[in-house]
């Protein structure tokens, strides 16, 4: 038996790291208005060189952006506006999973009595940390987790995920498989049917037939049309009853317990968009002060002959200058991205969600000549007030369905069902036919999928007055 020994081993390996200054740039870009205000207060206390300018001390409610006199109105990105977020998910951990509740001094004391429960994103990222895979796949998995809805469904195309994560489509597919293998079973599904199928036991001899029933016959189960299913699948009624019992044990909303435990979220707008004489005007919200370097400490740096003092002041001045530049860059990027989005979605300001057009982050990134990850960071956890209401900015990105934006198609389906005759509710096929007449090419199965995702009951169950329209 060989003995154990000690010794030095020289090993060379490549490790990607992100510079703290670059990390601060990414973090500031992703901050909401409330988070940034808290960050500014912290920096003002910790860095004596940083102070509020005399002009900035005047009470200011908003930073308006106009085409004529606002420095943020330019669509051009200044050098250094790229946000390199390689290894971002590894470095940033669970805090990138979604919105963060601000906890600054300005928040009422009673809100701090809430016990913060673990969010879905944090729970999934924790599990992801134990899985061995390539950096590209892990980064794509992080973006998938970030893109999940509160119910755990994924409505972002894998092509868009691969673009945001700067990885191949194969890596994005592998990442989705990993996310779908996490707890709770059913997370990461792209439809209710897939969510249910992911919860089936692969070792159960009923699973194959159960998947066939879920993917094609949920409507028939709802109305009790057993004969049609057995005839179509060529199985006995006894076996189908066993399958139905298995399906009844599955949870169509496996992540609902996390949604209930989320801390109180505030939809304070970060950006405002208005129409003024037909032009789109975009401006930032909040009471963000105008920062500057202390004239006293700048003068002291020039006059001091103490090396320790000089070194300290240089470090503090560099830190303050970088902080001011990162805030200015954040504001400019958010305004440019928001303006580009609202320009594409101009009809939304007049006609609402039904007028949304298909739009991806890649389109906005290409238009502004920035990375997709920068667009993603700029809209992360941020809200815009326009058309009299406040919306999450990410709602304005929508995949294409039948030549229209997915959300506009869903809104049209809601309208049709809301206007139907309760005694003769519209079938999914009838809705698909009506949409086809409106130049929206969509199948009956897609109508059923969108109806289910909106919590709208099937045709046979809408004949009562208990209509669940959300």
List its traits.
21 helices; 470 residues; two-stranded antiparallel sheet; 4-stranded mixed sheet; alpha+beta; 6% strand; Arc Repressor Mutant, subunit A; globular; disordered C terminus; 8 strands; single chain
Structure description:
The protein has helices at 20-30, 33-46, 88-92, 120-128, 135-147, 158-165, 169-180, 192-198, 207-216, 218-223, 226-233, 237-248, 256-260, 295-303, 307-344, 348-351, 361-368, 372-379, 406-418, 428-437, 444-453; strands at residues 50-52, 271-276, 279-284, 291-293, 383-386, 389-392, 400-401, 404-405. It is of the alpha+beta class. Among the domains are: 120-190, RNA polymerase sigma-54 factor, core-binding domain (Arc Repressor Mutant, subunit A, Orthogonal Bundle), CATH 1.10.10; 202-249; 400-461, Homeodomain-like (Arc Repressor Mutant, subunit A, Orthogonal Bundle). The strands form three sheets. The protein has a four-stranded mixed sheet, with helices on one face. Strand 2 and strand 3 form a beta hairpin.
- By CATH, the topology of the domain at 120-190 is Arc Repressor Mutant, subunit A
Residues in helices, as a percent range: 40-55%
Beta percentage is 5-15%
The CATH architecture of the domain at 120-190 comes to Orthogonal Bundle
Assembly type of the shown chains?
single chain
Mean model confidence by pLDDT: 76
- Output the radius of gyration: 27 Å
From the spread of the alpha carbons, the general shape counts as globular
H/E element sequence: HHEHHHHHHHHHHHEEEHHHHHEEEEHHH
Number of helices: 21
* Main β-sheet description: 4 strands, mixed
CATH class of the domain at 120-190: Mainly Alpha
> What's the count of strands?
8
Largest beta sheet: strand ordering: 3-2-5-6
- Straight-line N-to-C gap: 71 Å
Contiguous low-pLDDT stretches (5 residues minimum) are: 57-116, 260-265, 465-470
